[in-house]
Amino acid sequence: MKILVVEDEDALAKGLKFNFELEGYEVALAGDGVTAVRMFEAAEPSFELIVLDLMLPGMSGYEVCKQIRQRDPRVSILVLSARTLSEDRAMAFDCGTDQYLSKPFALPELLSRIRNIEERRRMLFGGAEPASPETSRELRIGKDVVVNFDRFELHVKDAIQTLTTMETQLLRYFAQHEDRVLSRAQLMQDVWGDSSTFGSRTIDNFVMRLRRLIEPDPANPRHFLSVRGTGYRFVSNPAEPTEPPA
Questions:
Q1: Cβ burial, residue 107 (10 Å; 0-12/13-18/19+)
Q2: Could you write out the DSSP letters of every residue in the chain?
Q3: 52-106: per-residue pLDDT in tens?
């Protein structure tokens, strides 16, 4: 896997590069946001994973994430930041981050997450299996929404929204387990590949973003339903509410 590390602290960047290369990854370094975007655009073949600090000179990590995500919805982005507030995490996920790990961090945990990302990418992009009910290429949600899993696209009426890798995986998992109550721990384990190192807010942030993209009224969801104290239940075509008799 080809990794771009975007980190302005030189010693940390070189330490990450050294350890990633020991794991067999191809690694490049960028010390600021502008350089990172330029390297990403010029890379051939493309980078498959971005390990991204948020506090960077010249361009914030949030903006780097947005620009890279616009250019490639399939690239995986893991934020590695000293920012620990829930607002920082929410903003990073809104910009297109797949995973978020706070500094200081344990190297074994970081490497575990990268291996999980690599495995998920292999499952998504590594094979050419024919479509089946489990791997359907499209999903219709309600009357106006169609998800194209091959293109990572969400069609809402005449508008097209690009989905991230993790948003696509989460949507597919919901579709495969429609109308079942799914716990946050189950979603973490089966979609992200880890149920022990993430907070429940990670799942909540992703579901809130899907609601904003898909639900006609995100404050009153009809497709991504909260199950108090447990998790969520997905319904692609809920029954239309009936009008009371006159």
A1: exposed
A2: -EEEEE-S-HHHHHHHHHHHHHTT-EEEEESSHHHHHHHHHH-SSPPSEEEE-SS-SSS-HHHHHHHHHHH-TTSEEEEEES--SHHHHHHHHHHT-SEEEESS--HHHHHHHHHHHHHHHHHHHS--PPP-GGG-SEEEETTTEEEETTTTEEEETTEEEEPPHHHHHHHHHHHHTTTSEEEHHHHIIIIIS-SSSS-HHHHHHHHHHHHHHH-SSTTS-SSEEEETTTEEEE-SSPPPPPPPP-
A3: 999 999 899 999 999 998 888 889 999 999 988 888 888 888 888 888 999 999 9
Tokens 């992009």, residue?
125
Sole residue written with tokens 């590695």: 80
pTM of the full structure: 0.71
